[in-house]
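Revision sheet: structure tokens.
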Amino acid sequence: MKKLYTFLLAGLLFGGSAIAQPYNVTFQVDMTGQTVDPNGPHIAGNFQAAAGFPGDWDPAATSLTLVSGTIYEVSVSLPAGNYEFKYINGNAWGSDEAPPAVAGIQPSNGNYNRFVSVVSDTTLPAVVYGAGAPVGMVAWRQMVDMNMQTPSANGIHVAGNFQAAAGAPGDWDPATTELFDVLGDGVYQGIFYVPAGTYQYKYINGDAWSDNESVPSACEVGGNREIVLAGDTVGGPLCFGMCTACPAAPLPQYSMTIQVDLSASCLLDIAGGDSVDVAGTFNGWGGTRIWALDPDGDGIYETTV
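Predicted:
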């Protein structure tokens, strides 16, 4: 079923003013292997209201038209941004597809939504209904974690010998294949559809080769990253300039003083061996004893952790 998330694309402010220009976006789905519902395929997502439909996530409002063989499509006008969507074989929830993890984000009841980042006129490839990629291709979801970097105002890009196969003008272009922080978590990602094979690539914190990462020797092949794609693949998230995921950032540390007033207690016999200790989730409920002290003899025991 639907998942109600809306994301605004970071980095759409230039010179202090927001870009409001609408772009033409064409959604396509290949109904190969499906018995198409008499009501026809539809699409629903958090783009519908922006495209002029009555509301978002309406399974009956946005129909697709057969354009060739088993390919259905619809074109809309959208402002720049990140959008989620999914296809429906019919016009009601319950007939919606269940895309695999490689194709989507934010699982809802075990199902993912597809996503698209719109920054220009865009025609999405005709993915097979309920699958990760178009016929004869594999889906490669790239994810690079930029939380240990200061992301460039020129965007985060990826370049490699896969770009032309994925629809870019050419390979190894540091400025044409942009990744986007679709969840606002510092992880930049995109989905690319290519033939199965071996590809080399590297990430760019900006849009020029002077901004490219230095791939560590432990995972470099000719100075680049390399991946063998035999099927749909989720790549990462890899940390920019590292072979693995980014290490977890250390949590900030704060001091906490705990006090208890036992001045009126007649039950405490320090001389006889009694003690005052404190336990809680911060020390495993007594897994490590913390002895509270009364240095000035006023009956108020305290400790700082």
